[in-house]
């Protein structure tokens, strides 16, 4: 049904265990940073957005690989956003999805909405990871989930740098969250 060039999401821990942490029947206001071809967005649309008031905000500039100095993208080409939009229209709750085609930094400058689930899989440059986590945590409601991809990934800065960056965030916010998942991905539940 969905059109994709990469299978990353199909093996993700989020896809396998998210429903242990999010109630599908409740209102879920979701923020996704980094959307690629929309497979995770479609998963959210198909599985946790049936409540009338649920929504999904997708944020991705869809920079084509190699076109923006200082921004590293993988596998993004002129067809990626077309594939994203096509996949979204096929998803169950597509009318509740809003796309912001911009960087997460630009999105957070004007965001006032609070979310009960945030999935971070955007730019893997260390400065972006740090800002995405900090900005997302500020936009996360109490008792809500923030899920980060590639915790055990290598990234542009070298193997282990993503984990060290995320661990530094956890240390800065010690006591403000509960760790709910640790593996290749990392997830926390905000307590304050």
- Helical percentage: 25-40%
State the CATH class: Alpha Beta
CATH superfamily: Vaccinia Virus protein VP39
Q: Roughly how many Å apart are the termini?
A: 40 Å
Topology:
Layout: H1 13-17, E1 29-33, H2 39-47, E2 55-59, H3 80-90, E3 97-100, H4 104-110, E4 115-120, H5 126-138, E5 140-148, H6 161-172, E6 177-182, E7 186-190
Parallel strand pairs: 1-2, 1-4, 2-3, 4-5
Antiparallel strand pairs: 5-7, 6-7
Helix pairs in contact: 2-3, 5-6
Plain-language structure description:
The chain is α/β, with parallel strands linked by helices and 192 residues long. The protein has a single domain (25-190), classed as Rossmann fold (3-Layer(aba) Sandwich). 30% of the residues lie in helices and 21% in strands. A 7-stranded mixed sheet has the order 3-2-1-4-5-7-6, sandwiched between helices. It starts with 12 loop residues before the first helix and ends with a strand.
Features:
192 residues; alpha/beta; Rossmann fold; seven-stranded mixed sheet; 6 helices; globular
Short synopsis of the structure:
The protein contains six helices and seven strands.
């Amino acid at each position: 049904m969905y059109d994709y060039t990469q299978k990353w999401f199909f093996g993700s821990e989020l896809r396998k265990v998210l429903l242990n942490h999010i109630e599908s029947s409740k209102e879920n206001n979701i923020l996704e940073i980094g959307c690629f071809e929309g497979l995770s967005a479609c998963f959210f649309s198909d599985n946790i957005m049936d409540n009338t008031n649920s929504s999904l905000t997708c944020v991705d500039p869809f920079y084509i690989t190699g076109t923006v100095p200082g921004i590293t993208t993988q596998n993004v080409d002129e067809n990626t956003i077309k594939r994203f939009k096509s996949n979204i229209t096929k998803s169950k709750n597509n009318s509740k999805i809003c796309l912001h085609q911009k960087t997460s930094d630009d999105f957070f400058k004007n965001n006032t909405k609070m979310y009960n689930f945030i999935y971070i899989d955007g730019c893997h440059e260390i400065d972006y990871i740090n800002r995405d986590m900090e900005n997302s945590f500020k936009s996360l409601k109490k008792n809500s989930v923030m899920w980060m991809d590639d915790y055990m990934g290598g990234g542009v800065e070298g193997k282990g740098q993503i984990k060290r960056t995320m661990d530094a965030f956890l240390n800065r916010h010690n006591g403000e969250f509960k760790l709910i998942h640790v593996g290749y991905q990392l997830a926390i539940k905000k307590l304050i």
